[in-house]
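Morning!

This is the sequence you dropped in the shared folder:
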Amino acid sequence: MDNSIIFAVGGVILGLIIGFIIAKALEKNNASKLVREAKKSATLILKQANNEGESIKKDKLLQAKEKFIELKSEHEKVILSRDKKIAESEKRARDKESQISSELAKSTKLNQSLEDKIKDYNHRLDVLDKKQEAVDKLHKSQVQQLEVISSLSAEEAKEQLVESLKGEAKNDAMAFIQSSIEEAKLTAEQDAKKIIINTIQRIGTEEAVDNCVSVFNIESDDVKGRIIGREGRNIRAIEAATGVEIIVDDTPEAIILSCFDSVRREIARLSLHKLVTDGRIHPARIEEIVKKTQKQIEQEIIEVGKRTVIDLGIHNLHPELIKMVGRMKYRSSYGQNLLQHSREVAKLCGVMAAELGLNPKLAKRAGLLHDIGKVPDAEADMETPHAILGMQWAEKFGEKDEVCNAIGAHHDEVEMKFLISPIIQVCDAISGARPGARRQVLDSYIQRLKDLEDIAFGFVGVKKAYAIQAGRELRVIVESEKVDDQKAADLSFSISQKVQTDMTYPGQVKVTVIRETRAVNIAK
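The structure's back. Tokens below.
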């Protein structure tokens, strides 16, 4: 039993060994076949690769030959161009050499001629020196003969001649200077008149007279009752909000607005127009409309100022000065609208400055701003003259010294330091003196001047007194025997204090006391 098992196991093992051997033999056979097939395919691939390599090699060789031929032709072209440039350079060099040779020949000839001329010049100098010596000898002999004849030395004769010529020249010079001064005065006066006349003729503006009241027209008298309101509450609210007195009387279809401030009157007029148009008139609505109108007027003031400076060609003006220019529209001076007056003065100044060869833009600027001190300001000192106040504002907002001085000096409050200052003063006087420009009560004006002079005559030692410059200056002439220099100074102060306490006047009054001594003798 055991032997049969052993034989069976041995048979199985032997069968496995034999099967393994047979499988290896078959695998080896298949591997050899695969190797042979691989060698064949490798040989084919190598052959194809060699063929393709040969074809690529031939193509590359052809391309290389073509590239070589192309580069060779380009190289030949470059060489030809270089050779051409070299030939041209050589030709230019040869031309320059020939030109230099000719110039050298010319310079040689010139040098030779110059040397000849120098020799000739030296020869002539020698001749002139000899002749000068002969002339000097002759001159000395003649001077000696003249000294013997006149019994005077040469120096004495020279001094006498110089003195006589000096006296004649001095007399002639004085006569010439006098005639020149007279002619210059006549010419200057004529030219000044021409310039002023031409300036006035070239400027023409309309004049508008303003006053302290405005008339508000209404469609019917029924509106008056609505404006007054129950127990007058509406009219009181309007007056309180605007600061304007409203006069409602029997005048048909009209209401009077009274106030010295034109801006407040305009605010009240526009507010009434809006209230009447809207129909709702009560205190709350009145305050709302007045506030809106105030903002509208402030904006309109700025727009008026901007339009004015643009029309006059003035640039880089400070916004605050632009606002002041706009407020001039609602101000008047002696019945003359301040904005129209300032525009007219600016145009006059520009024309006159151009005629005199000065800067017309700077003159226009000063002319427009010369009366900004008349525009009321909450911080302004009302005791300060408007010219000084305007100068201070101009300095504050960065205006040039010429403009500031012209503003401050146009009523002689400060000294004029620049040429445009008298132009502003003259043009301001021209604009104010134009017929119909300003409204003044002649009787009160004359009376004010007489009162000024009467105050001066009330002091001891006063000989004459004159109110000049429209009452802005009082010139007092005293008797030198009764008033000495110290008393003259005291008298000027006393008269100014008397004028200040006894009179009412715009601006300021300058008191000038003149003490004159004369020594007179008669030559017979």
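Headline: The chain is about 70% helix and 5% strand.

More detail when I'm at my desk.
O.
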